[in-house]
Amino acid sequence: MTSLRYDREFALLARDGRFVNGKRTGRVNELKATYDLQTYMVHLSARSGEKVDSFHLINEQPSLETYLTAFFAEPISLVQNKMGQLMDIPEESAR
Fold it and tell me: Residues 52, 45: contact at Cβ < 8 Å?
């Protein structure tokens, strides 16, 4: 399925190794994100603000993690899984 080609290729992890997503924190919904995954660019802004910050998901990963750490007020790491697996619910990927 091409519509799911990049689905969950990237994920955010907290220091404790748990995923940072809408299941864990509503703060995720306060972050506006648009993507161009063919060029690995992400454009982020707080829903309450107009300033947009853009990052290359691979080449600018440290800067992106700094941005996300400040936004979520906790250390955030970006992880990539090119297998297209549902990283936060891996048992669903096996079906």
Answer: yes
Distance between CA 69 and CA 30 in Å, rounded?
A: 14
* Residue located via tokens 């829903």: 47
| The residue to which tokens 């748990």 are assigned | 18
- pTM as predicted: 0.80
Phi-psi region of 33 (alpha: psi -120 to 50; beta: other; left: phi over 0): beta
Residue 66 β-bridge partners: none
Task: Encode the chain (95 residues) as per-residue pLDDT tens digits.
Answer: 445 555 677 889 999 989 898 888 899 999 999 988 889 999 999 888 789 999 999 999 999 999 999 999 999 999 988 775 555 555 544 44
Percentage helix, strand, coil for the chain under 3-state DSSP, each rounded to 5:
25, 30, 45
